[in-house]
Design a protein that fits this description.
This protein has 13 helices and 13 strands. It is α+β, with helices and mostly antiparallel strands. It has a five-stranded antiparallel β-sheet with strand order 2-1-9-8-7, sandwiched between helices.
């Protein structure tokens, strides 16, 4: 007997659905469904890529105008993409615009590599930052959100991330409401432009789509004093997703009180880059040795003798080399200017400036107070932790920095170098590796620092 089997055409399997609605002002949950189910976030991932890009600019790792060289990996990413070519350079600000507005995968990968050296290292930083935000069920494997094993998040976690973008970096938030933007090589449209145009008060944030994820969206809208954030995972189409998000935003505005205090989320701890050349390590337990700061002479009592360095030929080279490097450096930026990578750090915040004018005008000591200098071979590097208006300010910062990072800075020369532009606070007598480690550890503590090499 001949048996003929007939098969009905296969239908695409719908991605799992999840949703979350919160009052952005307070973080109160107004609606949730499957909000803690781990799903594919798709391009919602780029919200974290952008968050870290803003964080990196804030902490002086990179500037908006830094030229970024596009790698083969970045240029090879599949669409959606800006169309970057291997080897070309483009300002960092345009990569941010392309990732935020067009959801360009090549731009997102380029951002990650520019900040962390590789996409894998950047993904680890993304996950660290997520954990610091309380996004406990999120793990990132790439910067763009294309489907990858283990690259998962939840509606709750992505809603949390959207709220942090809104409150932690309000100066950049306008990017997400632009209908289009110029991204360096062309003008690109916003992937969320239909909701932005159709829903009253909508001003962001990010769309996402892959076959595994379905149509995702984290949206925010403001009406009078109220602001709602709604998240949808697993929409069946862009249109149905937008309709569902509009329904959820309406629900949020109905349930949210007309007036509520704004309780901004706490900014997560600065995760920084770990594992690039020298690992940023956290101190565990009390240090075994300590730099003991020398008491500063007062106006009435001068110290009879300073603790002097026993310098040999190498120490002379250190002093001369660092003095030459400082003399050739650019003029220190003002408090309102933006720091360029590798340039002299801005003046310390006001909380480190002397409390009274009398103290600030205190006479300068005739002898420099230094710690012991190791003169072993190769210790020709140093680090600079700022330029200040008086020697006393510089010495005060050196003491405070030495106490906060005793293990790394042990045995270094603490020295203030005077120039026509001010007083530079430096630690000298280090190997290149020691200087690199010191700067990374200080930057992890939000202390501005840059390395100074031998002449």
């Amino acid at each position: 007997m001949l048996c003929v089997l007939a098969f009905a055409p296969l239908k695409s399997i719908a991605a799992p659905y999840a949703a979350m609605v919160i009052d952005a002002r307070t973080g109160e949950v107004l609606h949730s469904r499957n909000a803690d189910t781990r799903l594919h976030p798709a391009s919602l991932t780029k919200m974290m890529t952008l968050y870290i890009a803003f964080e990196a600019v804030r902490n002086g790792e990179i500037t908006l105008d830094t030229p970024v060289r596009i790698t083969k990996k970045a240029s090879a990413e599949p669409p959606s993409k800006l169309g970057l070519r291997t080897g070309q350079t483009i300002a960092f600000r345009y990569l941010i615009r392309a990732a935020a507005v067009k959801s360009a995968n090549d731009a997102a990968t380029a951002i990650g590599i520019a900040i962390s050296g590789s996409e894998a290292a950047f993904a680890r930083r993304m996950t660290r930052t997520a954990k610091a935000m309380g996004m406990s069920r999120t793990t990132f494997k790439n910067a763009h959100g294309l489907t990858e094993s283990g690259h998962l998040s939840t509606a709750r976690d992505m809603t949390t991330l959207g709220r942090h973008l809104l409150y932690d970096y309000p100066q950049y938030y306008n990017l997400f409401s632009r209908q289009s933007t110029h991204a360096g090589i062309k003008t690109v449209p916003n992937t969320n432009r239909r909701l932005l145009a159709a829903y009253k008060g909508a001003d962001g944030i990010k769309t996402g789509y892959t076959r595994a994820a379905g149509f995702n969206l984290v949206a925010s809208a403001k009406r009078k004093n109220e602001r709602i954030i709604a998240t949808v995972f697993g929409g069946k189409s862009g249109a149905s997703r937008n309709a569902k998000v509009a329904e959820l935003l309406d629900l949020g505005f109905r349930r949210a009180p007309s007036r509520a205090p704004i309780r901004k989320p706490a900014r997560p701890a600065y995760a920084g880059n770990v594992g690039l050349g020298t690992q940023v390590a956290r101190l565990s337990g009390p240090p075994k040795t300590s730099l003991r700061p020398v008491v500063r002479p007062s106006a009435s009592t001068q110290v009879a003798s300073a603790v002097a360095a026993t310098a040999d030929q190498n120490s002379a080279r250190i002093t001369n080399g660092i003095a030459a490097a400082i003399a050739q450096a650019d003029v220190a930026p003002t408090a309102s200017s933006k720091q360029e990578p590798g340039t002299r750090p801005a003046q310390r915040p006001a909380d480190l400036v002397l409390a009274s004018t009398e103290t600030a005008k205190q006479p300068e000591p005739e002898q420099e107070v230094v710690t012991r200098l190791s003169s072993s071979g190769g210790h020709l590097w140093g680090v600079n932790v700022g330029r200040y208006t008086t020697r006393y300010e510089a010495e005060k910062v050196l003491l405070k920095t030495a106490l906060s990072e005793m293990t790394t800075l042990e045995g270094t020369l603490r020295k203030v170098n005077q120039s026509s532009r001010g007083f530079d606070a430096t630690f000298q007598g280090m190997t290149r590796e020691q200087a690199d480690l010191a700067c990374r550890r200080l930057q992890a503590r939000n202390v501005t620092c840059f390395m100074i090499g031998p002449s």
